[in-house]
Structure formats: structure tokens, C-alpha cells
Amino acid sequence: MLPIYLAMLDGEEDKNKFELLYVTYRKLMFYVANRILNDERLAEDAVHQTFLKILENFDKVGEISCHKTKSYIVTMVRNTAINLYNQRKRRTTIPLEDVEYCITTEPISVAEDLDHLARAVLKLPVIYKDVLTLKYVQEFSNEEIAKMLDISEAVVRKRLERAKRRLKEILGREESADVN
What domain of life (predicted)? Predict the structure, then answer.
């Protein structure tokens, strides 16, 4: 498949960069997709669709071997796999208990508040974490997020709104627990 993807790119530098991205992350992407779909063929389809979506936004991919890129790729393949799962089951939602997710996290040692916020974000459902990550970590616009996740911009805005509301609730509960 790599030659097909490379044919879609202009410039030798972009081709070399994409080849490195492909070699570095294809196995992780397959693993994440297969954990959700439990079907190797569907997992391969999810990886392929994800690579095509990455190609559409390839100018936004920075350094290949960094946490931000890995997070972006895992988020993209996870959402593609979930979309395929939903199409296959003809359901609109997946109970979170039925799906194990691979979430890559690195220790945050910047400040206590940031650590507190990060723990609160980890308690959110994955659909909210993904939208928050794409919006505030990856810095994509609502329109770009909608296109990547195959949802409408209105759904992106609503998920961001709900994620912020849930974060306030989580942080408020933790603060009141700390006071007691």
C-alpha cells in the first residue's frame, strides 16, 4: 500500500516523511484498530482509511517520532475503527465497557494544576477526550475535526461543550472531596 500513498504526495521530502510515518506507526495502528474491531480485515481497512485521512492533513504533521504525532495517529485510527464498528453493527453508540482503548500518555510534570486537569480529562469518555485532544493539543479547527471524525461541525461543537461541562463537574467534585 505504501507506493499508493506515496504516489499521492508531491515532493521527495514529503514522501520520505510519510514513509517514515508509515513504517513507524502502521503496526500500532493495526493493533489499536484490531482491539476495537476484533477482525483483521476490518482493522486493515481502518488503517488504510486512516492513512488516507492523514494524507489529507499531512501538512499539519510535524515531527514523526513525537508524542503529539503518535497521539494524533492513535486518535485517528481509533475513531475510524469505531466508525467501522458502528457501521458493521448498525448501532449509533458503543458501550465503553465493550471496547478497550489504547491511550498513550506520558507523565506530565509541569505543574500540579496541569496534572490535576490531565487526570480529570482521563476520566472523560473517549469521544470527549478525542475531540479535546484534536482541538486543544493538535490545534485543528472544528471543521477539520468534523472531517477527520466523519461527524458534523455541530456535533464537534456539542462534544466540546459537553466535555468542558463534564470537566467542570469532575474538577468540582474533586475540589469538594479535597475540602472534606
Answer: Bacteria
Q: pTM higher than 0.70 for the full model?
A: no
User: Domain span at residue 117?
Assistant: 103-179
Residues ≥6 apart with Cβ < 8 Å to 1? 48, 51
| DSSP letters for the chain | -HHHHHHT--SHHHHHHHHHHHHHHHHHHHHHHHHHH--HHHHHHHHHHHHHHHHHTGGG---TTSHHHHHHHHHHHHHHHHHHHHHHHT-S---GGG-----------S-HHHHHHHHHHHTS-HHHHHHHIIIIIS---HHHHHHHHTS-HHHHHHHHHHHHHHHHHHHHHHHHHHH-
Q: Which of these, 33, 122, 152, lies nearest to 84 by C-alpha position?
A: 33
Q: What is the pLDDT of residues 127-173, one digit of tens each?
A: 888 888 888 877 889 998 888 888 899 999 999 999 899 988 888 88
Of the candidates 17, 83, 87, 15, the residue with the CA atom closest to the CA atom of residue 49: 83
Task: Examine the fold and report which residue of 101, 133, 160 is the final residue of a domain before the chain moves on.
Answer: 101
Residue 79 C-alpha cell reads as 475513531
